[in-house]
Design brief:
- With 203 residues, the protein is of the alpha+beta class.
- Helix content is 19%, strand content 31%.
- The chain has a six-stranded mixed beta sheet. Strands 9-1-2-11-10 form a five-stranded mixed beta sheet.
- Strand 1 and strand 2 form a beta hairpin.
- The two termini are 18 Å apart.
- 23% of the residues are buried.
């Protein structure tokens, strides 16, 4: 039955159930496949040795691209990179909510950053960046996830003033190449990325 926001929750539940069944039918990964997955995750989120510098001088950042904009987020907020996530779309939901996916048996909302910055989401999709602190809270749809780098506070520029009205609280600085550095706690706490996924609607 479709809810007040035009979401057919019976269909959503059915698709999620099919996704669970397909994951269970696939069974456990072979040792070779499991090793390949772990190697890929280690490659993406490998942490280079931290130079001996004064505390607070460097931040370890994961760079990624979404809707033709490059962002960076502190690696402590990035729990996982999922290369091939199946996302169940939610027609009628807010533009920031792309859909739902299953991660380790749990339903996770998949979000778009572009609407927060006044941009249209990209049609193409790539890896899913799983964000959270103690647990997975959001999956951010990206076009590409780049390397983990050390960023010095001395090399950063102030956040663009043009973002003050839309997403000023989400960006604490910018790189000289135009990368926007996101504030992880502000992103996870942004009310536009908090959803009620009950049958009564999505808010």
């Amino acid at each position: 039955m479709a809810g007040p926001h035009g979401i057919d929750w019976d269909s959503v539940r059915a698709r999620l159930a099919n996704l669970v069944a397909s994951r269970e039918a696939e069974g456990a990964l072979s040792p070779e496949a499991e090793a390949a997955v772990l190697d890929e995750r280690a490659r993406v989120l490998s942490r280079p040795p931290t130079p001996e510098v004064a505390p607070g001088t460097l931040r370890e950042m994961v760079r990624f691209r979404a809707a033709s904009q490059t962002y960076a987020l502190e690696s402590r907020f990035v729990l996982e990179v999922v290369r091939a996530a199946e996302v169940v779309p939610l027609p009628g939901s807010p533009p920031t909510l792309r859909g739902l996916t299953l991660l380790h048996g749990e339903v996770l909302p998949v979000v778009e950053l572009a609407p927060l910055f006044g941009r249209a989401p990209a049609e193409s999709s790539g890896p899913l960046l799983v964000l959270g602190t103690n647990r997975a809270e959001l999956g951010v749809r990206t076009e590409e996830v780049h390397e983990v780098t050390q960023v010095s506070s001395q090399d950063l520029l102030p956040a663009p003033v043009t973002l003050a009205d839309s997403a000023g609280g989400l960006v604490f600085a910018a790189d000289r190449d135009g990368t926007l550095l996101l504030e992880g706690e502000a992103l996870l706490g942004d009310s536009r990325l908090v959803f009620d996924l009950s049958d009564e609607g999505v808010v």
